[in-house]
Amino acid sequence: MEKFKLKLGERELVVEIKNLAEQANGSLLIRYGDTLILATCVMSKLEKENLDFFPLIVDYEERYYAAGKIRGGRFMKREGKPSDEAILVSRLIDRPIRPLFPKNLNREVQVLLTCLSWDAENDPDIIGIIGASLSLSISDIPWSGPISSVRVARIDDRFVINPTYQQREQSQFDLVLTGVEQKGEILTNMIEGGFDETSEELLSGAFEFAIPYLKQAIDFQKEIMETVGKTKVTIQEKQKDTELEEEVRYIIKDRLEEALYQTNKAKRIASVDEIKQEVSTIIGEKDPYKIKSALALVDDEIEKIIHNNIVQNGKRPDGRKIDEIRQLHVEAGLLPRTHGSGLFERGQTKSLSILTLGSPGDQQLLEGMEIVGKKRFMHHYNFPPYSVGEIKPMRGPGRREIGHGMLAEKALLPLIPSFEEFPYTIRVVSEILSSNGSSSMAAVSSSSLALMDAGVPIKGPATGIAIGLMTDQSSIVDNPNKKYKILADIQGPEDHYGDMDFKIAGTRNGITAIQMDVKIKGISHNIFKEALSLGQKIRAQILDEIEKTLAKPRENLSPYAPRIITIKINPEKIREVIGPGGKVINEIIANTGAAIDIDQSGLVFITSENQEGAQKAADIIEGITREVQIGETFNGKVKRLIDFGAFVEILPNQEGLIHISQLSTNRAKKINELAKVGDVIPVKVISIDEQGRINLAPEKSAKR
């Protein structure tokens, strides 16, 4: 066994190379605090034929035993499908490692991270990324890492590296970066973050702050690679078929550029497909086995044309300037019976968001390895196949939909009013009607419109934009010739063939969420700053357009939204409201149609489809919990008779006793001669004993 240690931030990062998963190509244990992950990677021995993508699978697996928990239903106690949190961690690991595999690698690769121990202090995601990198680096799988990763928080006006969960609760700044080394410089190749309207300058400072720690972790991995690393498998480069290249170029001639430079996505795709079909037919007639190679050459030509035209001439496929966004269209309140709706269009990307308000009891219950609690604000993102003109089976949200939904949720969360200010559960669903780049950022815009249309008192509208990058593909490190272009609002081929997708969401006051992925090795700090600056400028332009339609939340909630009344009761009275076996509260719900949620502090939230139902339930609960005073008078209703008197209900579920002597001085009379069940009697409270029992007398003859 080999053991390696590195002080990273406030804690020690420990790597153990054991033969635990000895049949994997690479495996190790990685530990930070008492959070420990088994990182493994496996590559198939045979190549997969006829693939037009790299067959990489990245899975992060939560295990309940890691946290000392037994979860699940009554009949199923083992882990089932991955939680949304596990899927997001899988994506976080996948995104930075994927671009570093050789383009000609056609073997299946699986990277599997299993959390074996969790200490409730250190998040497994960061060591998951480092563990994935190191398992690949020491294996024989071709890969041009290592990469490293850190999380940056800001607490008391200073940056903190790899904060604990407790520290993160004190911070409204959460940034994850991964880094890779090129020619002695640390570049970043993945960024994910959520913030409470932070500035571009602060983000730039966090980037600089993280660089030394990223380098530390990369150097640490290189030392381990030198000690235990395996020789990499050699992937044979395919021989260039010069004759095929010339024939493909002859077939496409100058038509490919003309086909690519059309503003309409459908026409562009149709024109390119027509050329590809022609290439496929002509080449297939001579040698069917060369069709795939010929089509790959067409894609290479497309990539070259787009890169060269943008980098050299600033010429984009749809004719826009490099800092120009597509045409915008904004609407609010489209749907007649929903609680709120908003439509945002940017070119051929269209997102319709619908908001629903619910009671506090509608909050989502979270029960995972790490997270246990409730979720009050939810954003869900749907990407139906018709949005890109395709046919696919509908099988629930995939990883991409979950990831995009969470990115928009992260962007909107800082704007949501506190529970005390607005005790509703809020769910927003974004339906992507048409997609031609940056649909998740369109979802941020349409969702803020839906929130304002519903009358949710958010701080203000938010929007987002995708910033792209085109390089000359020779070097990403900054150089005097500045051989790259940063693009505003990428779409279509710029998204597909571009080198960076940097999503930036926020308000006029600052950035609330960012997400960056690259297809090259990484980007420098200067490119990062330029992208942030362009994003700030574009955000302001889009917000101008949104505010022309709806500048602030509507004054009143939708008439179809439920109404919530909040009242405060004595916590000791909660059991009286609930009643034995829930009898009392269920009667109130049945009689008023309201939903009732009671907090242990004594806060009662009453939700009803209309104000009348909510108020009726509130009146009943206030009656049950009201503490009556001696001398108060009521019109009471006789509920039951006993030999020595009658019990009279003076408030809901509150009764007092009128002794028979208070009703008549004639001892010969029986109680049923003096009162009947259902009689309404004006009564006065004459005493309350130590046990809270109330004694009454008829109001006119009340005596002490």
Summed up, what is this model?
It contains 17 helices and 29 strands.
Structure description:
The structure is a single chain. This protein is α+β, with helices and mostly antiparallel strands and 704 residues long. The chain has 5 domains: 164 residues, GHMP Kinase, N-terminal domain (Ribosomal Protein S5, domain 2); 72 residues, Arc Repressor Mutant, subunit A (Orthogonal Bundle), CATH 1.10.10; 174 residues, GHMP Kinase, N-terminal domain (Ribosomal Protein S5, domain 2), CATH 3.30.230; 63 residues, K Homology domain, type 1 (Ribosomal Protein S8, Chain: A, domain 1), CATH 3.30.1370.10; 69 residues, Beta Barrel (OB fold (Dihydrolipoamide Acetyltransferase, E2P)). Helices cover 32% and strands 31% of the residues. The protein is built from 17 helices and 29 strands. The strands form 6 sheets. An 8-stranded antiparallel sheet has the order 8-7-9-10-21-20-18-19, with helices on both faces. The chain has a 6-stranded mixed sheet with strand order 1-2-3-4-6-5. It starts with a strand and ends in a 6-residue tail after the last strand.
